[in-house]
């Protein structure tokens, strides 16, 4: 509840300041405006609204995220609502900045050749084992019990190129961020990585290419041109007697 109240206040302050926001993240001053977000920090193939941008700036300011280091960006696909995406590195930075953070353990869940379910630490398994999920445990000094996350790969595997090439890394990543969010709900409660919320894969575009991609994405879709009217048929002309005579075979 405290997070929602503070974020709402940040949104109101951002809306009042038409020039954008300015804040400190990791010791650096970050300045965001609607134009900067729209041109440089947006991915997808659809136009983002001013409301989406205002909310994005408010979350970045409240969570002290540096979007220029890809700690956060805004995604909008046609037919889907805009989504604020954060990186796994942003989760760990915020956790490590907390004095109560006491490390983590993580890995994958597999079934061996005998059908037994085994939790492997790290992302390695044998060819004879089947990957079924990921797990993570995050420790806090001020809590008796750690935050534990176990996730099923079937719930997140979208069959995209990244999931096909490194499924163990992907499912372990989801388990880590979910455990971190459980351990630090105030700092990470409103943040999500792309694998948790996207119905399609967000292309990992280098920052210097984002401007070129989003310059097209912020334009309204080109409307199909109206079809040209069908040409009217020429009026029929009654053949003359001489023409009829020529066309009648002997």
Write the layout of secondary structure elements.
Elements: H1 2-16, E1 21-25, E2 28-32, H2 34-40, E3 42-44, H3 50-63, E4 72-76, E5 83-86, H4 88-96, E6 101-111, E7 117-121, E8 130-140, E9 147-152, H5 161-165, H6 167-183, H7 185-188, H8 194-197, H9 207-217, H10 241-247
Parallel strand pairs: 3-4
Antiparallel strand pairs: 1-2, 4-5, 6-7, 6-8, 8-9
Helix pairs in contact: 1-3, 4-6
Can you offer a commentary on this structure?
- This protein has 250 residues and is of the alpha+beta class.
- It has two domains: 112 residues, no CATH class; 85 residues, no CATH class.
- It has ten helices and nine strands.
- It has a four-stranded antiparallel β-sheet, covered by helices on one side. A three-stranded mixed β-sheet has the order 3-4-5.
- α3 links the parallel β3 and β4.
- It is flat.
- The N terminus and C terminus are likely disordered.
Task: Give the SSE order as H and E letters.
Answer: HEEHEHEEHEEEEHHHHHH
What structural class is derived from the secondary structure elements? alpha+beta
- Our measurement of the CA-to-CA distance between the termini, rounded to an integer number of angstroms, reads 99 Å
Overall outline:
flat
What does the average pLDDT come to? 79
Q: Describe the largest sheet.
A: 4 strands, antiparallel
Q: What Rg, in angstroms, do the CA atoms define?
A: 28 Å
Q: List how many beta strands DSSP finds.
A: 9
Percentage of β-strand residues: 15-25%
- Multimeric status of the protein: single chain
Structural domain tally: 2
Query: Helix count?
Result: 10
**Approximate helicity band:** 25-40%
Main-sheet strand order equals 7-6-8-9
Unreliable stretches: 1-17, 203-227, 239-250
């Amino acid at each position: 509840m405290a997070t929602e109240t503070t974020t709402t206040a940040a949104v109101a302050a951002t809306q009042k300041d038409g020039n954008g926001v300015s804040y400190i993240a990791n010791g650096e001053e970050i300045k965001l405006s609607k134009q900067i977000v729209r041109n440089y920090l947006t991915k997808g193939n659809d136009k983002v609204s001013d409301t989406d941008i205002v909310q994005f700036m408010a979350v970045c300011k409240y969570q002290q995220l540096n979007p220029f280091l890809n700690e956060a960006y805004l995604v909008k696909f046609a037919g889907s609502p805009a989504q604020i995406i954060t990186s796994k590195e942003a989760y760990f930075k915020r956790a490590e900045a907390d004095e109560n953070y006491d490390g983590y353990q993580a890995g994958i869940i597999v079934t061996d050749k005998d059908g037994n379910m085994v939790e492997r630490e790290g992302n390695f398994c044998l060819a004879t084992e089947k990957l079924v999920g990921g797990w993570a445990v995050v420790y806090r000094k001020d809590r008796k019990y750690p935050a534990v996350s176990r996730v099923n790969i079937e719930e997140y595997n979208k069959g995209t190129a990244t999931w096909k090439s490194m499924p163990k890394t992907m499912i372990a990543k989801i388990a880590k961020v979910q455990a971190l969010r459980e351990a630090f709900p105030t700092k990470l409660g409103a943040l999500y990585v792309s694998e948790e919320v996207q119905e399609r894969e967000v292309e990992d575009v280098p920052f210097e290419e984002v401007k070129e991609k989003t310059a097209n994405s912020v334009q309204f879709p080109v409307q199909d041109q109206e079809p040209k009217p069908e040409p009217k048929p020429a009026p029929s002309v009654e053949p003359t007697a001489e023409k009829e005579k020529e066309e009648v075979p002997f």
